[in-house]
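During the no-cost extension, the postdoctoral fellow (Dr. R.K.) reprocessed legacy sequence entries with the updated structure-token encoder. One reprocessed record is reproduced below for audit purposes.
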Amino acid sequence: MTETIVAVVKRDCPTCALIEPVLADLVDRGVVSVVHRENDDAGLEASWHLRIETVPALVRGDQRIVGWSRSQWEEFTGVAGLGEGLPDYRPGCGSRTVEPGLADELAVRFNGSSLRSRRVPLAELEDEAEALFDRGWTDGLPVVAPTEARVLRMLGGTSRGADEVVAVVPPDLVECTVEKVAVNAVMAGCRPEYLPVVLAAVEAACTERFNIHGLLATTYFSGPVVIVNGPIARAIGMNSGVNALGQGNRANATIGRALQLVIRNVGGGRPGGVDRATLGNPGKYTFCFAEDEEGSPWEPLSVERGLDPGVSAVTLFAGEGPRGVVDQASRTPESLARSFAGTLRTVANPKLPLAFDAFVVVSPEHARVFREGGWSKARLREELLTLLTIDGSELVRGAGGCDEGIPEALGGASWPKFRPDGLWFVHAGGTAGMFSAIIGGWINGETGSQAVTMEVGS
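Re-encoded structure tokens follow.
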């Protein structure tokens, strides 16, 4: 059976007025089954559900044409000789469903009932921002009120269903849907196109391997660090260059913040409750950046961690705040590696081996030294692991006048500072300045956290 054709028009569109006789003819012939007029609520609702952006429009199943073109209309309807005396072509007008302001209103009117989150009414005289502070839904900074319109707009950034469960979020082990992530992404200030990255970060954080519950409960400094690879980073305008670890980029700032708000508002992980950090670090507001893949002498982090080139991905690492590596004099990889090793030894404590992992953010100027010396990531890692294998006599408790360290019984062997898979490199930063950074990790192993890399979906 041939699918019926539906037409959508609006009153103040000159092209719609022009083709009214054509539509009347097609309705009389039984070719067009329904004409929806956007000037009334029923027609507006139909247009919204059909996702009409330009009128006049003819819709048949998944096919559609917009505007007036005699040849297109004749081919689409199978009727020859349409619109005698009319111009061959006239462009259409914008649908009312895409008008600023009205689009959000219609989304709430016709789709708001699809949202399952609890509505929280505010009193007429309540200040929106203060009300969200008072209810404990912020991270200490103002958040964007998650209205129905904003949440629906955010959900437009993903093809996933709003009621799909993304993860079970510790510490309260609450099922978190795409909608709940969208609510917190709105509050964090995200744009809809950031949502797939936030969803991947939430999934990665809630894996047993990453262990966000343990990371929350530790008294250590660390929090989740989000590193983004692949085409998505450029598409959403992330910063991988100047000030990549700092402020000023909306995507970097809000993606990491959205993850933290999900952990807080859905999972119940709040400072002073399960979150027991002695000091914490500013990165616990948000710590998110992209790798500079185009300028890197090495394969991207995501590829090194097993994904195919060109795949968008997030890598989560339980990290503290960055510490600087300053070396403006080294012009050989051998020399620069020793500078890196000296700073890497300080992660957690110079006398504690194997227990902590680290990420090294290698700046373009330092990366150039390794590139010109022909050093791969594997070569640099091997060199650093060798340089950071330390005689146990230097690490035992009491050595050097410091009571911290390994038990005296272990002093007869040499100990590596890092596990072979506990030292990773990512390329980012401005092209001027011979400064790199080290992000020290929280305790590794089964009782701690392992880095997790996850593909970003749609």
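The mean pLDDT is 96. The first strand starts at residue 5 and ends at 9. The remaining legacy entries will be reprocessed before the final report is submitted.
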